[in-house]
Amino acid sequence: MTRSVRRTRRTLRLAGAGAAAALALSACSSSSDTSGQSGSSNAPASPKLSGTVTVFAAASLKESFTSLGKEFEHRHPGTKVSFSFSGSDTLAASITGGAPADVFAAASPRTMKTVTDAGAASGAPVTFVRNQLEIATRPGNPAKVSSLKDLTKSGLKVVLCDKTVPCGAAARKALDAAGIELTPVSYEQDVKSALNKVRLDEADAAVVYKTDVKAAKGTVQGVEFPESAGAVNDYPITALKNGRNAEAAQAFIALVRSADGQKVLGEAGFLKP
């Protein structure tokens, strides 16, 4: 066999080995790509939220929760947050009466207990903020109110929340601590109604929350009093068993408790839990 023939055969063997290696490498690469694609398609995806989430919330949460509702809808296109704001006791009665709601945010543990005792809560409620009382007067404080005791001045028209409402129970606790007996011109069913009596010049003063004075944006003037420190209300929140959108309910609660949610609530005047 000539030297040139041997050289040609050797060249062909090397070329064949290189082609086989290339094919093997290509097969591995293809297998790897397919495996990666398969793993990606089988990975569990986060559920896309949709539909309406119904939130029952204490009247004092109206401004901050409305803002958080808009943020929730922005983050989750296809969802809608529907609110019902009222006195916590009224909302609790509606829930235990079977009203369909996904989330309940109360202004006191006592009103939340009405819901949990009835077995209407889904999971344990969690405190997400706290709130402190303040006296709301007309702008400029024409009645010169500077303390709880000043609310007993002759001729002064004072409004309180009803004793069954968290703001009313807290006001009663503060008045008792100060040893003050006070007969208001009216008891209101929620804190916004009490505040509006002052805004509409139907009362000289009302005991409300600091957050409500702040939300009034200058239409009333706030007066702090030391007894309020002993009558701070915790605000619990929970998902509800009668809810129709459990995933959205949990996501809304998560937003409320998140750093972004706490920032909105803090700017509204709420205290950290």
UniProtKB/TrEMBL annotation:
<dbReference type="InterPro" id="IPR005950">
    <property type="entry name" value="ModA"/>
</dbReference>
<dbReference type="InterPro" id="IPR050682">
    <property type="entry name" value="ModA/WtpA"/>
</dbReference>
<dbReference type="Pfam" id="PF13531">
    <property type="entry name" value="SBP_bac_11"/>
</dbReference>
<feature type="signal peptide">
    <location>
        <begin position="1"/>
        <end position="29"/>
    </location>
</feature>
<protein>
    <submittedName>
        <fullName>Molybdate ABC transporter substrate-binding protein</fullName>
    </submittedName>
</protein>
<keyword id="KW-0732">Signal</keyword>
<keyword id="KW-0479">Metal-binding</keyword>
<comment type="similarity">
    <text>Belongs to the bacterial solute-binding protein ModA family.</text>
</comment>
